[in-house]
Amino acid sequence: MDNRPIGVFDSGLGGLTVVRQLMRQLPGEDIVYFGDTGRVPYGTRSPQTIERYTKQDCSFLLSERVKYIIAACGTVSSVASHVLKSLPVAATGVVEPSSDAAVKATRNGKIGVIGTAATINSGSFRRRIMQLNSEIQVFEKACPLFVPLVENGWIDRNDEITRLTVRRYLAPLGEQSIDTLLLGCTHFPLLAPVIMDVLGENVTLIDSGQATAAACAELLAKSGLLGDPARKGRARFYVSDRPEDFTRVADMFLGCEVDNHIMTVDIEKVDIPEASLI
Ligand code: DGL
After folding, report:
1. What digits encode the pLDDT tens for the residues 113-133?
2. 185 is catalytic
3. Which residue of the set 73, 143, 216, 256 is catalytic?
4. Which of 159, 191, 208 is the last residue before a domain boundary?
């Protein structure tokens, strides 16, 4: 039994889609969440910058004595997975679990993948899906404007600007008759109701949060790292800039008040210990 917390990070609010699933699937676990709100978005940046940010984010979580790290960010998982492999604790990203879930879900073999520009340019989801089944057709689309919509809390299905933006990006995927859409950025499940309105009920959305939390639960169980199941897990939230916008959307999305637990970290000042991190 190991009661140390699980560390989760993202560039901002997106990783909460993984936290929500962790709270459901592993209610006894403590969680330390870091949202790099001062440096969001990651998805428009160079691989070198994303790698540096990833090292600092992981370094901060390690200083919180976490037993496991989840990169709840499609961009980090796609561009800096080598950093995750170099950590002194086990770590996982979202590419493998959500690609596996998409391949299981498709019936007609046509999967759409959406993510940030960095994620789509990396081809990470396409590669994983093709490894699992080379006959599947993958249609990719970068949707960079979804991230600021979510960070600003413009997630209401009746918001005209959000609907138009979603339609503009996703209409071409709808025309390809995909039956499964992999949300390859953890910010995107917050837009799921609008995406469903645009693509229709016949398209299955794969939320990386659910698949990633399940993979984490399995790994913790296998490695004897689960916490005491009789405990009620608690979550602590850290951000790297003003907590206000984060608080508003986090409350709405997680369905619980996170206000009292939000702390600020000066992430640029976090050292990267080169010995334990590549
Ligand atoms: N939520 C992140 C992802 O899954 C990052 C979005 C961004 O910072 O651009 O890709």
Report:
1. 999 999 999 999 999 999 999
2. yes
3. 73
4. 208
